[in-house]
Design brief:
It contains 1 helix and 13 strands, in the order αβββββββββββββ. The strands form 4 sheets. Strands 1, 2, 5, 7, 12 and 13 form a 6-stranded mixed β-sheet that branches.
Length: 188
């Protein structure tokens, strides 16, 4: 009888030890998973530099005295990069000299629903921003722009791009631009 009690007690202790080991393993696994997830969500690739990107204009929009197009920035490096915010814009004349420019950040005439967010571009991926400006001015209240200087967010260097279907008579020197967003190609 004492032997049966001893065997039952030993079996109970072994079962409790096994359950405890499984519970401890599950708890440490959950902690490790949580830690990995937290580390993954806080990692941000380095900001994009001018040499990581190529730039271009796509599309052409025109309506009610307003013109617009999409500026794209493509990651041409072999690593991921990040962009956050608005591109810098500067109108240029035919000699690529700066013209008075007032950049309005927020919505554009053709895209009113973009919000500022962190964009992570893998190699080959593209981000875009919508640009628009009014063209119903006169030479006395407008500037004649042939080129647009585009500075990627958080960069100190820029691309110089020829304005599509240019030159453009930009009313009140104002250019509206949306924040950078993941680029979705327009397919008519």
């Amino acid at each position: 009888m004492k032997l049966r009690i001893a065997v039952a007690a030993f079996a109970s202790m072994a079962t409790l030890a096994a359950v405890g080991a499984v519970a401890a393993s599950a708890a440490s696994g959950a902690t490790a998973t949580t830690t990995r997830t937290a580390a993954q969500t806080t990692y941000t690739p380095p900001r994009a530099h001018i040499w990581d990107l190529s730039a271009g204009f796509h599309g052409y929009q025109m309506e009610m005295g307003t013109r617009g197009f999409i500026v794209t920035l493509t990651n041409v490096s072999n690593h991921s990069v990040s962009l956050y915010g608005y591109p810098g814009l500067q109108l240029l004349n035919a000699q690529k000299q700066p013209l008075p420019t007032k950049t309005l950040w927020g919505m554009s005439y053709f895209d009113r629903h973009q919000v500022k967010s962190l964009i992570v571009l893998s190699p080959g991926e593209t981000a875009s921003a919508d640009i628009s400006f009014s063209v119903y001015g006169t030479p006395s209240n407008s500037v004649l722009a042939y080129y647009l200087e585009v500075t990627p967010p958080n960069c100190y260097s820029h691309f110089t791009l020829k304005i599509p279907n240019g030159p453009a008579l930009v009313y009140l020197h104002q250019v509206s631009v949306t924040p950078m967003a993941y680029h979705t190609p327009y397919i008519p």
